[in-house]
Amino acid sequence: MYSLEERMKAVMLFIESNLNERIVFRTLGYPSPNALRSWYKEYQQTGRLNEHRKQVVKFNEKQKEFAVNHFLENGRNLTKTSRALGYPNRNTLRIWVEKSSPNSLYVNHCKAKPEKIRCSLEEKETAVVSWLNGTADYKIAYEYDVSRATIFNWREKLLSKEPIKMKRKKTPKNSEILTDDKEKLHRDIQSLKEEIYQLKLERDVLEKAAEILKKVKGVNLKKLTNVEKTKMIGALNTTYKLKDLINFLKIAKSTYFYHREVLCNEDKYKDLRVNIKTIFNENVCCYGYRRIHAELKRNSIVVSEKVVRRIMNEEFLVACYPKKKRKYSSYKGIISPAVANVIKRNFKAKTPNQKWLTDLTEFALPTGKVYLSPVIDCFDGIIVHWSIGTHPTAKLVNSMIDGAISKLKPGETPIIHSDMGCHYQWPDWINKVENAGLIRSMSKKGCSPDNAACEGFFGRIKNEMFYGKSWMGVSPQRFIQILDQYLHWYNYKRIKQSLGFMSPVEYRQSRGLLI
């Protein structure tokens, strides 16, 4: 209930706001529209509001007297009287009774309870049969003037002893059975058609994905991009409904139409795609997006690295291949006294021909094996000299060191670092190195990090030109030619990020150094 001041405040605000109920409620937080209109009507008629509102009388004196008499004459039960008359509630009836006869509510409270109604066995059986035939339990309980729990007890006791004869239900006619079966078959057929349609849709989507997107290792529809989904919908739009394709591929309708319009427009990177493919193929298919971006920049083509990476992904230009374990080992034990590790994993040099690295690696072909023995300069990673053969002999290693020594200038005595392979412990190798004035340095036994820069060089060339390609039918002599061409390209053409995206030869030329 609202006070007189609150009601007057609401009415005045209602009049000031040109009878706008929402403004009143938003400002005051009360009242309801009906209450506000009632207050306003009262204010219009009398010019003021009553301080206390009159209480509405719901029941007259005759109705009250009749209800009290019914209560007194029919067991003095508040609940039964309220249910029988339909009015009032128990609390209101209690107030009426207390006013008319205060001592009549609990007169029979201490009297003995009336004797319970005993039902015969036949009545119990009839009640249980009625329940089994579908009659509601509360109706049976009302008919026999017992509780529902009593009906349940009768049922358990009677059914546990002997079965009660029940009326046979009306069996459906043959025509009704056939009609029901026919409808069920129609529903099953429709369900099967929908299931077949979904399976065909899924199969065609997977086939088109493999055909259009060229997914060799299977298709995961959850990982497809919106552009790929748009291409697949465009290919299957004539066979299936657009709504079904969009729902199956889980793409928004607006997104599909946007990408379809973009695909219909002319590709603004058409020439750039050709340039990227050309650079990728001309460089042994081993350049990633950073080096391709550097090559484009050298050719005065300005473009973002992200665009290059996206175009390479769209054209499936992948330069990464898994590495394989190194099987060959040249260690044959201690042949000559080992020398100290002079390099100590410091593979940086300030000038050319200051620190050299060497090692031997194996290329296992289906037709045979090929071995490479290079000399790497730590200054810029250039290959000073290399030898390739089909057997890891002393001749292979000695020819390599002879070619490297022949390129030294007078007074240059670099450190030559190797592992503890047998080739670097033979007397011929030691004599050649000492006669040229080179300083020997060797890694510890089985410690590849001591010669990590050379091991990284081997891994790099195998990732770029050996792994991931089929060498079936390639002879060792043909592979030697391919490897020799690659090593020449490595020195003259292959750009390195550490050299400012220049090849080793270009880097030396830029600094005025002769090879």
- What percentage of amino acids are in beta strands? 5-15%
Mean pLDDT: 82
Q: Using the alpha-carbon principal axes, give the shape.
A: elongated
How many alpha or pi helices? 21
Question: What is the CATH superfamily label of the largest domain?
Answer: Ribonuclease H-like superfamily/Ribonuclease H
Oligomer: single chain
Under CATH at level 1, the class of the largest domain stands as Alpha Beta
User: How many β strands by DSSP?
Assistant: 6
Into which percent range does the helicity of residues fall? 40-55%
| The number of domains | 6
Give the SSE string: HHHHHHHHHHHHHHHHEEEEHEHEHHH
Reported by name, the CATH topology of the largest domain is Nucleotidyltransferase, domain 5
Please outline the major beta sheet. Answer: 6 strands, mixed
Name the poorly predicted regions.
107-113, 163-169
Distance from N terminus to C terminus (CA atoms, Å) equals 104 Å
Question: What's the arrangement of secondary structure elements?
Answer:
Blueprint: H1 4-16, H2 21-28, H3 33-46, H4 61-73, H5 78-85, H6 90-100, H7 121-132, H8 137-144, H9 148-161, H10 174-212, H11 226-236, H12 242-249, H13 253-264, H14 270-282, H15 289-298, H16 305-314, E1 355-358, E2 361-365, E3 368-377, E4 383-389, H17 394-405, E5 415-418, H18 427-435, E6 439-442, H19 452-465, H20 476-492, H21 504-510
Parallel strand pairs: 1-5, 5-6
Antiparallel strand pairs: 1-3, 2-3, 3-4
Helix pairs in contact: 1-3, 4-6, 7-9, 10-11, 11-13, 15-16, 17-18
